[in-house]
Specification:
alpha+beta, Fructose-1,6-Bisphosphatase, Chain A, domain 1, D-Maltodextrin-Binding Protein, domain 2, 2 domains, 6 helices, 14 strands, globular
Length: 272
């Protein structure tokens, strides 16, 4: 157990870089199909999904897997990986270089490690997050977050017109109320990661799925950002046997506590 977290980090790094190198070759050269929910999927998504699942099964045979493309029911395994093999498929398909691979490792339904690799940007985010009430876990990780092996923290500024706030395409109704400059990135996890690293003052996503937040939640929390669920009930632990295909996890993420009373009323119309 003592070397588990080093093993987990090395595995995530090696696997996402291997997948990313192939996806870079596919970028701009594949066509997308539309899934039942209206989102896009390509042969690259399916290849990446299969490759990551095979890597997990080989390296961590006792771990469960939940993935956007093939297995959306949370398993009963004590440890479970939740993956988005190609986060930002619409960007990927349309030649926009903001996409990547996201992985989160859960223990008893709660995320403890996250890794997001963005090959076109040459950026890799990762983090470990441990809550003090999780006393059932021996040798827990040290809470911290990194971008390209440099420790990151969110912004501590007050609001100004030159700060950035990230939106998803389904949250534009709040646009007139925002005093900041805005960005729409087309990749939910990257929205939150920019807050974690201090590039943006805040961000909101109206309909992210569990694979969108499995890695970025850990990194944002570990960095010190404030994550506010906009849905009903607690996010974690996830429930064994539950199908998460159509379960959104809307969220507001801001850089510090002082920003909460300002942005929370603005995003209130997005609550589920």
């Amino acid at each position: 157990m003592a070397d588990l977290w080093n093993q987990v980090l090395k595995f995530a790094e090696t696997t996402t870089f291997r997948v990313g190198n192939q996806l870079l070759k596919d970028f701009g050269n594949v066509k997308a199909d539309e899934k039942a929910d209206g989102s896009l999927v390509t042969k690259s998504d399916r290849w990446a999904d299969r490759t990551i699942r095979e890597a997990i099964a080989s390296t961590f045979p006792s771990h469960g897997i939940l993935t956007e493309e093939s297995q959306q029911i949370f398993p009963s395994n004590e440890w479970c990986w939740i993956i988005d093999p190609l986060d930002g498929t619409t960007n990927f398909t349309n030649g926009v270089p903001i996409w990547g691979t996201s992985m989160g490792l859960f223990y008893r339904g709660t995320p403890m490690f996250g890794y997001v690799n963005l090959p076109p940007l040459r950026q890799s985010y990762y983090g470990f997050y441990y809550q003090e009430n999780q006393t059932y876990l021996n040798n827990p990780p040290i809470t911290r977050a990194f971008l390209n092996n440099r420790q990151i923290n969110p912004i501590q500024d007050i609001i100004s017109g030159n700060h950035l706030f990230n939106l998803c395409s389904r949250s534009t109704k709040i646009l007139p109320q925002l005093p900041t400059k805005i960005r729409m990135l087309g990749m939910a996890s990257y929205n939150f990661l920019l807050v974690a690293s201090g590039a943006s003052i805040g961000g909101v996503e109206a309909t992210p799925k569990i694979w969108d937040i499995a890695g970025s939640w850990v990194i944002a929390k570990a960095a010190g950002a404030i994550w506010i669920p906009l849905g009903s009930g607690d996010i974690f632990p996830l429930k064994i046997g539950k199908d998460y295909l159509n379960h959104p996890f809307p969220a507001l993420v801001v850089g510090n506590e002082k920003l909460v009373p300002y942005f929370l009323p603005i995003v209130e119309p997005l609550r589920k």
